[in-house]
Amino acid sequence: MWNKLVLSVRNNCQCSGIAAVFITGYLINTILHKMKNISQETLVFVVFVLIIHKLCASSVLDESTCYCLHEEIAALRNPVHIEPTVISGERVYLLAEQLGVIHEYHPGASVNKLRTYIDISDRVVCKRELYEERGLLGFALHPKFEYNEKLYTYTIRSINNKDYVAVSEITKKDVTREKTLMLIEQPGDRRNGGQLLFGDDGFLYIFVGDGGPAEERDNQAQNGDSFLGKVLRVDVDKTTIADYRYRYYDIPQDNPKKSDWRQEVFAVGTRNMWRCSKDDGDRQGKRKGRIFCGDLGSSLADELTELKKGGNYGWPYMEGNICRNSTMCQQIAGDTVAPLYEFRRNDTSSRVTAVVGGPLYRGTLFPEIYGQLLYGDYTVGALSTLKEPSRNAIQSSWTPSNFTRCDKSMCTCEARAPQRTMLLSFGQTHEGELLLLMTDEPNPHKPAGAVLSLKPQNSKVVTCGVSSNLPTLWINILSCALVISAYLYRFT
């Protein structure tokens, strides 16, 4: 009897104060013993109706790992990248909108939380249309940004009616003295890449898409003399002379430097890596510095992969583990980097139709996913994690798990923000916690985007707006009390 009673209380009394429930239940039980003319059938019917009300009033809770959402900033125009940093001693964030504006976000400010840092919207190509893939696509802060205020941007610009990737350095917010590190002509207006990040080695990694050629036979991703479809690595702390011109970077001495590759090339065969992140390492400092990316495929598969020096990611001969050209696959087999995980288009169980790579989680709010790689889907915003196999594991493959939204009743009142439709990118806080950059309309000029922070669920159901929900609260208390009374009345 008591096991059934405890189970019923746990299942039906989550919204009520336990003390109030038991006191009310005791009083009702006493009254029932005094009322000799009440039938058990009537009591069971009343309890049944109230339990049904309770079950309909709140959805069944999923006890697996889930997240709640707090809205940090709204009305953004396609937010594509966010970085924590320190400016004038204050912990802030720099946030990029695709049309060409980078803002300072001051979460602790009471007013004016969002302030323009730089505006280069007049320099970039970014049309007012859905699914525009050009514009300001990424930026990276110099490892010593707090002191030198150097910021590097990845944009698409038009020069003589041709589109170019432009990687530039801007110091101390002075856009008039912008330095262009490189220009890469684009064969089309799609698959532009856009990720920049500094590795633990201090070098700048540049992730360039294949440029969206009309014909995939235009094989620039495998052409080592082209920057298209490549990962580049340069040293921005040195300058040099190349082709009789001053160049604002140098070549790291340990770049692969294969005979048929340009010296800046670090890896080849990428299609459109979106997004990449660097592992901060575990609590013992192990595995620090690894770089993970999501790479968008064409018609066969997307993939998540780890960046390897001198690696070949297969495009356009391969998508994930799928070979598109058997002769060429054999030729590059020795250098091919296998994906950590692939998402095949014909796999109906996959939650991914266009992968967005996320960070490997090293925060503290979600201990259940510590050390797992986050990823999501651009089209519907679904989140998942990829668990790394242990070094002693027999099975060496990474395994996916869903990372779902919590039932709102288990979220604090300030963590019940609506999740936007489409996922543009991930971000992290100063503490390593998770941020989502999302939008309801993928038009870079429409203020339909937001930055959302992930929060863990509460340990018990939270009732928001108590004053307006007192009738429901008392109905819940009475329903729980009647469940207790039914058991006591039945067995005493």
Overview in brief:
The protein has 492 residues and is an alpha+beta fold. The protein is built from six helices and 28 strands.
Description:
The chain is of the alpha+beta class. The protein folds into two domains: 2-58 and 464-491, no CATH class; 77-351, 6 Propeller (Neuraminidase). 16% of the residues lie in helices and 34% in strands. It has helices at residues 2-12, 18-34, 40-57, 145-148, 326-332, 470-491, and strands spanning 66-76, 79-87, 90-97, 101-105, 114-119, 136-141, 150-159, 162-171, 179-185, 193-198, 204-208, 230-234, 240-242, 245-247, 265-268, 273-278, 291-295, 301-306, 318-319, 322-323, 341-344, 355-360, 373-377, 383-387, 399-405, 422-428, 434-439, 449-455. The strands form seven sheets. It has an eight-stranded mixed sheet, with no helix packed on it. The protein has a four-stranded antiparallel sheet with strand order 2-3-4-5, with no helix packed on it. The termini are close together. Residues 1-21 and 52-63 have low confidence and may be disordered.
